[in-house]
Amino acid sequence: MIIVLLLQFNMSFYMTYLARWPDYFHVAEGPGNRIMGYIMGKVEGQGESWHGHVTAVTVAPEYRRQQLAKKLMNLLEDISDKIDKAYFVDLFVRASNTPAIKMYEKLGYVIYRRVLRYYSGEEDGLDMRKALSRDVEKKSIIPLKRPVTPDELEDGISESFSQGSTSIY
């Protein structure tokens, strides 16, 4: 089970996240210590761009449709909001991943911008955001009117996503 869930990135990538942002790395275990899913992320940015970031959220097929992804997302959002005092949480998702986009929208995320040719230079990505309590005026989720390229992304965000996605489906 764990091998299936971890194929999204290489092991050193996971270990780096675990070492640098341990509060943002959570695994949900089921009966018999089976891995049901995990979430990994980080906190980054400066000023009003200080935010939590979902690098990956993955739920094993047999545990989907049980609100596990929602619980993992809520956990990362709470850490970003209450501990790190971030303004928002963001994530990237393939523009073609309609089920995941709908789930994120149900969780309160909005499409902030489209990133052209984000995934392996071929498929567009959507940068989705959810404002947290520190962003009283909700400035962080006002959508951009034009698409951007991966080169225009700030804070080195593109490095983590061109290899994987925050897909739960």
Automatic annotation (TrEMBL):
What are the annotated GO cellular component locations? NatB complex
Q: Could you tell me the superkingdom of the organism this chain comes from?
A: Eukaryota
Concerning CDD domains, the annotation shows:
NAT_SF
Listed Gene3D superfamilies: 3.40.630.30
Looking up Pfam families in the UniProt record yields:
Acetyltransf_1 (PF00583)
Any one GO MF annotation of this record:
protein-N-terminal amino-acid acetyltransferase activity
PROSITE patterns reported in the protein's UniProt record: GNAT
Q: Which SUPFAM superfamilies match?
A: Acyl-CoA N-acyltransferases (Nat)
Signal peptide start-end = 1-19
User: What are the residue boundaries of the N-acetyltransferase domain, all occurrences included?
Assistant: 1-133
Task: Alphabetically list the UniProt keywords.
Answer: Acyltransferase, Signal, Transferase
Family under the similarity heading: Belongs to the acetyltransferase family. ARD1 subfamily.
Question: What name does this protein carry?
Answer: N-alpha-acetyltransferase 20
Provide the species name: Gossypium australe
User: Which gene produces this protein?
Assistant: nat5
